[in-house]
Write a structure and sequence with these properties.
The protein is about 35% helix and about 20% strand. By secondary structure, the protein is of the alpha+beta class. It is globular, with a radius of gyration of 31 Å.
């Protein structure tokens, strides 16, 4: 019994001594470990800000910053190093960007990605020394639009972050949000939900028309003006009133395509307005039909394009009804910035548009759909193709 008690005392004593030694070791080692960790962190930050003289992590929880921002360090001379997580072809695309106190990029580097093309490894070199205007002017790389656009936008977010943390203000809304805010301000009764109208009539002086999804009216766009028309058709603008009356009076009838056999086999739908204009939906064989590789398999689907035309062959409006082109490349054909280029074109000049970078097959397929619409118009007007 006595021996057991002695053993217990010895064990307790050993444990106590070990605890004291560990505590002493930690008290000595902890500052050294932290110093080494800080040095390693600073070394990573110095990659994008080589002239940095010390960094302090910023608590960003109280700031409204771009959604891509995950971490920020402030440099002793007033610059910032920003870590951002975005998505290119895949998620988890992590970029670190340094911004000097004067608002220029000191460097940018990809920390992690699941991209397939490799451009993210060197693209950051393009941004060193650039200010906001310089970054905007850098081209995306044809064939790597998704990757390089994501990189470029992340660098813009880093520049905006530096402005915000420095006490400035930045409008973080994207184009869609700005448009919707303008529509909502013009017609609050629309409750923030609007759809752009596809136009089949010639209306002068109007750039676009949006209808409130709840049926409470319309918003007509003329330049930078957003002019409301309530659900009863009331407006003080004479140009808008004329355009509204034309639109609501428009009558559309379906055309029986079976009567034309194979002559219109690439036309999926056709209508004619009482004023004689046509609305045609045509198939174009883009990348989904003509392409396909290991990274971007072909979908097997046509691009479907809706076109409204006058009887003499002038395009009134264009819209991409459906497409299954490569994500981040060919799917740009569904962006109004692309298909809006055809509005006002005729058969003689419809090919005079800016192609989609890195998506030749998609662009050609879209042009083929427009060509087929022109061919169909001639047939429907009683001619031959």
């Amino acid at each position: 019994m006595k021996k057991s008690v002695q053993s217990t005392i010895v064990l307790v004593t050993i444990c106590a001594v070990m605890a004291i030694l560990l505590a002493l070791t930690n008290s000595v080692a902890a500052p050294i470990i932290k110093q080494n960790q800080d040095a390693a962190a600073n070394e990573a930050l110095l990659v994008v800000m080589p002239d940095g003289e010390g960094f302090e992590k910023v608590d960003i929880s109280s700031y409204e910053l771009p959604a891509t921002v995950t971490e920020v360090y402030k440099e002793a001379k007033g610059g910032y190093v920003v870590t951002l997580t975005t998505a290119g072809y895949g998620s988890g695309f992590v970029i670190m960007c340094g911004v000097a106190a004067d608002g220029t990029v000191t460097g940018a580097v990809c920390l992690a990605s699941t991209e397939t093309l490799g451009y993210e490894k060197t693209y950051g070199e393009s941004f060193a020394g650039k200010d906001a205007a310089g970054v905007e002017a850098i081209d995306t790389i044809s064939g790597a639009t998704k990757t390089t656009s994501a990189y470029k936008n992340a660098v813009k977010d880093a520049l905006n972050t530096a402005i915000i943390l420095g006490g400035g203000s930045v409008d973080l809304r994207d184009e869609a949000q700005i448009l919707n805010d303008n529509l909502s301000a013009a017609l609050p009764a629309g409750e923030g939900k609007f759809t752009k109208l596809f136009i089949a009539e010639v209306i002068e002086g109007i750039d676009a028309v949006y209808t409130a999804d709840n049926g409470k009216g319309y918003v007509f766009v003329i330049g930078e003006e957003f002019i409301p028309v309530d659900e009863n058709g009331s407006t003080d603008n004479a140009t808008v009133k004329t355009a509204y009356d034309i639109l609501v009076a428009s009558v559309v009838e379906d055309i029986d395509l079976t009567a034309y056999g194979d002559a219109l086999k690439y036309i999926t739908a056709a209508k004619k307005t009482a004023s004689g204009n046509y609305i045609l939906e045509a198939k174009g064989n883009g990348y989904g039909i003509m392409g396909g590789d290991d990274y971007h398999p072909a979908s097997g689907e046509y691009i479907i394009v809706r076109v409204s035309m006058t009887p003499d062959g002038k395009i009134i409006d264009t819209f991409t009804v459906s497409q299954a082109e490569s994500e981040g490349i060919g799917d740009a054909c569904a962006d109004e910035k692309f298909y809006g280029q055809f509005d006002g074109k005729t058969e003689s000049d419809y090919k005079d548009i800016d192609a989609i970078g890195g998506a030749t097959l998609t662009t050609n397929g879209y042009l083929k759909a427009i060509e087929r619409a022109f061919d169909a118009l001639k047939i429907l007007e009683g001619g031959s193709n």
